[in-house]
């Protein structure tokens, strides 16, 4: 007795050409690049209190950080190098920086002068 | 205007509510502000809530490494506002942080200093406190 074949699945080589073509042009889904949470970290001790902003994930709102002088923190190696070169913190650099690199990094700093204090009440 | 102390803040110093010391003291913060959005009043302003949010361009940054020297001189480590951007800033303001704007006491207003006013250009702004005999202030 012949078996009923209507319930069987068709083998893939029976898929029509048009269907194959449609499958071939399925859209590519792009995934946003997320900051690597496993970036190398460096421990630094702050010499200066530092306030700043960072964006943990692209497209998300910025967050603030407040690093207090005299305290130690683990921060991204890149940021740690920046703070050490700028003199905001002490720690171990991930690599040697040339004088030109140091000058370029420090060039962005504006200073409100040493005579800012000296208020005497009375 | 000139650098000065908030009078109601001075009252807090007198009453012993302000503890500026190396360890176990209060928390003090500093903001970099835009005078176009804040008209200082050293007599009547007492809390951070008196300073419009729009005037607080950068910060707050928490001061650290507090020190008290002889003759009522107070000091702390220098501070930096990184990647500072926004309106030009004309003043620095130091206050005692408690829990929020409504109970944080205004203490010191500084608008006369080398480098003030400062135009924020996306770079860092570092405040180097006086290394002379009066440091940040002499009470």
In short:
By secondary structure, chain A is of the alpha+beta class. Chain A has helices at residues 17-24, 77-86, 99-106, and strands at 41-46, 49-54, 63-67, 72-76, 89-90, 109-112, 119-120. Chain A has a domain at 41-116.
Structure commentary:
The complex is a heterodimer of chains A (122) and B (139). Chain A is an alpha+beta fold and 122 residues long. Chain A has helices at residues 17-24, 77-86, 99-106, and strands spanning 41-46, 49-54, 63-67, 72-76, 89-90, 109-112, 119-120. Chain A has a domain at 41-116. Chain A is elongated. Chain B has 139 residues and is mainly beta. Chain B has a 5-stranded antiparallel sheet with strand order 1-8-7-2-3. The mean pLDDT of chain B is 94. Chain A binds chain B through residues 46-53, 66, 68-71, 86, 88, 108-121, and chain B through 3-5, 10, 58-65, 76-83, 92, 108, 110, 113-116, 118, 121-132, 134-139. Strand 2 of chain A pairs parallel with strand 6 of chain B.
Please give the structural blueprint.
The complex is a heterodimer of chains A (122) and B (139).
Chain A: H1 17-24, E1 41-46, E2 49-54, E3 63-67, E4 72-76, H2 77-86, E5 89-90, H3 99-106, E6 109-112, E7 119-120
Antiparallel strand pairs in A: 1-4, 1-5, 2-3
Chain B: E1 4-5, H1 7-14, E2 27-33, E3 56-62, E4 67-69, E5 73-75, E6 79-81, E7 91-97, E8 105-110, E9 124-127, E10 137-138
Antiparallel strand pairs in B: 1-8, 2-3, 2-7, 4-5, 5-10, 6-9, 7-8
What kind of sheet is the major sheet of chain A?
Answer: 3 strands, antiparallel
From the N-terminal CA to the C-terminal CA of chain A, the straight-line distance is 114 Å
Helical percentage of chain B: under 10%
Taken as a percent bin, the fraction of beta residues of chain A is 15-25%
N-to-C order of helices and strands of chain B: EHEEEEEEEEE
Classify the secondary structure makeup of chain B into a structural class.
Answer: mainly beta
What's the β-strand tally of chain B? Answer: 10
In quaternary terms, these chains amount to heterodimer
What class do helices, strands and sheet pairing of chain A give?
alpha+beta
| H and E order of chain A | HEEEEHEHEE
Low-confidence stretches of chain A: none
The whole-angstrom Rg of chain A is: 29 Å
Main sheet summary of chain B: 5 strands, antiparallel
Largest interface: A-B, 29 and 46 residues
